[in-house]
Structures are given as structure tokens and as C-alpha cells.
Amino acid sequence: MPVALCAMSHSPLMGRNDPDQEVIDAVDAAFDHARRFIADFAPDLIVIFAPDHYNGVFYDLLPPFCIGAAAQSVGDYGTEAGPLDVDRDAAHTITREVLDSGIDAAFSERMHVDHGFAQALQLLVGSITAVPTVPIFINSVAEPLGPISRVRLLGEAVGRAANKLGRRVLFVGSGGLSHDPPIPQFTTSPEQVRERLIDGRNPSDAEREVRERRVIAAGRDFAAGTATIQPLNPHWDQHLLEILASGELEQIDTWTNDWFVEQAGHSSHEVRTWIAAYAALHANGPYQVTSSFYREIPEWIAGFGITTALTRSSNHMK
Ligand SMILES: O=C(O)/C=C/c1cccc(O)c1O
Ligand SMILES: [Fe+2]
């Protein structure tokens, strides 16, 4: 069965702190293209890799990976709230293959997800329930993080499982590229923030609003050149896009987590979701990137990319 991929940056500042119209038009056109690609492919299952931003997963129990057999979107930044349409059987099949491959992923019967999942699904297929989905959380925010090679191996195991499903599977990676939004780091945070990072589920509306306003203000300051957050790194982003397009994903195994941060900011770890999605595609055969969009968008605190890809055999089976 054919498989396909769409990897995209997300940013909750889209629509809240927008760049010039020319940039918005270019992003809209790239998303239109991705939506047409997905509609042509007509997936009957989406496997989405995405991070969490201290909305669903906390330091009280912090797995590197978690596969959801059921999931609930928290609706942060105005994204769609409520249950995703999770394909439970597919989630079980994928989890078994991942565990059999020696990757110790966590498993959830009630995974809580945030804009990392919801915004991507809404932008690509219209809603969090439009297509049966298996959500796979990849910790990309809360250190300590394991080596990047484990993410590739996770993706490969998921790709093998998808192959066994005999379905038209679309792999989605949501996150990255270079960016450093003001998400607190546990080790450098005051006690009261640490408490929220350990067990911050179900904040009040007022608490959520304070947090979101702070990030929106950071986006304004960043675009104005007055924020202290790390600059975007378009060279690093382009280099990563080239490696992903080449299919030589093992090259990334040598990159250390500290190097990711130095080069591209703390949240560049979100490219783990892209690496997993590309590795899943690669496990189904050689692939070809069919479209690639990139812009630096400081207003959204994002090196913003959108790519689509197909295995070569899927291309013939379309
Ligand atoms: O406030 C958050 O939870 C995250 C905000 C953010 C901002 C910009 C790019 C991203 O990937 C984000 O998650
Ligand atoms: Fe993010």
C-alpha cells in the first residue's frame, strides 16, 4: 500500500502576530499545495508525530515517546478541543511493533495533546477528527532528551508497522525548525514555575491567557528585534531540509542535543518529529520530496517549513 508524508512547522502565533501579507500568502499557498497533495493521496490513516508544550505531558512522568490509543486535545491557543478520532487497533499494532523493535515507548489510553497535534491536523485535513489518526508524542521540549538516533529508530519501527497495516498511511511531523520560543526550562525556572512543569494539568482560563499573552508578546518583540531569544538559523534549517530530502537520515545521528540548541534554539528539538516521520517513510522504501517550502518568520518565532514526500513505489501506485 502507498504511504506519504507531510512535515510542517507549527506556531500558535499564526493569526495572532502575523508577518507581511506577502509572507502569509506564500505560507497559505504552501499549505494549499500540501492539502491538495493529501487530498490526492486520500489517506485512510494519519500517523502524526508531534511534541507537547507542558499542556499534556509533565515532569511528574516524562516519557521520551508515547503512542496514544485514545487522545484528547486541550484546545490551547484556540485550537480545536476534544477527542481525536484515534484508530485504536492501528495504535495497538504500531505499539507492538515499536516495543518488539526494542524502543520503549509509553502507551496511553487517554493522551492529552496540544497545538502541536491539533494545529497540524486542522491545517492539513480540516479538523482533529477528519481522518482516523494515531498520535505519537515525541518529547522535544523537556530535557533531558535521549540521543537523536533513537528518534530515527522509533520512526523506522512505526514505518514497518504501517507497512503491515495495509492502509494508505500519511505520516505527519509537526514542529521545528530552528526556533527558541519562551518555553520555560526546568533547571532555570523558579519554584512556582517548576511546580507547573511537574503537574500543570487543567490550568484556569486566566492562567492559560497569561501564558499565551506572554508568548504572543515575545513574538512581537522578536520581530521588532528587541527580544532576547535566540535568532532563527535559516542555514541550519536548509541543511536539515537537504539531509531529509537526501534520505541519508543516519547523518543526523551524530548531532548532539547541545549542538541542536547552540545552532537552532531549544525548540529545534521539535525537528525530532520530522526525523521520525521521514524515517517512517524511509522504512517503506526510497522516497522523493515532492514539495519543499521554507521561510524565516520571526513574527511566529519559527523557521517555517512545509514539505511533502512519497515513496517512489507510491508515486507509481497513485
Ligand atoms: O507557548 C507555547 O506553548 C509554544 C509556543 C510556540 C511558539 C512558536 C513556535 C512553536 O513551535 C511553539 O510551540
Ligand atoms: Fe512547538
Automatic annotation (TrEMBL):
The keyword Oxidoreductase applies. Belongs to the LigB/MhpB extradiol dioxygenase family. Its EC number is 1.13.11.16. InterPro entries: DHPP/DHXA_dioxygenase, Xdiol_dOase_suB. Keywords: Aromatic hydrocarbons catabolism, Dioxygenase, Iron, Oxidoreductase. It catalyses: 3-(2,3-dihydroxyphenyl)propanoate + O2 = (2Z,4E)-2-hydroxy-6-oxonona-2,4-dienedioate + H(+); (2E)-3-(2,3-dihydroxyphenyl)prop-2-enoate + O2 = (2Z,4E,7E)-2-hydroxy-6-oxonona-2,4,7-trienedioate + H(+). Residues 7-305 form the Extradiol ring-cleavage dioxygenase class III enzyme subunit B domain. Signal peptide: none annotated. Pfam families: LigB. This is 2,3-dihydroxyphenylpropionate/2,3-dihydroxicinnamic acid 1,2-dioxygenase. Coiled coil: none annotated. The keyword Ribonucleoprotein does not apply. Homotetramer. Pathway: Aromatic compound metabolism; 3-phenylpropanoate degradation. Catalyzes the non-heme iron(II)-dependent oxidative cleavage of 2,3-dihydroxyphenylpropionic acid and 2,3-dihydroxicinnamic acid into 2-hydroxy-6-ketononadienedioate and 2-hydroxy-6-ketononatrienedioate, respectively. The active site is at H115 (proton donor), H179 (proton acceptor). Its cofactor is Fe(2+).
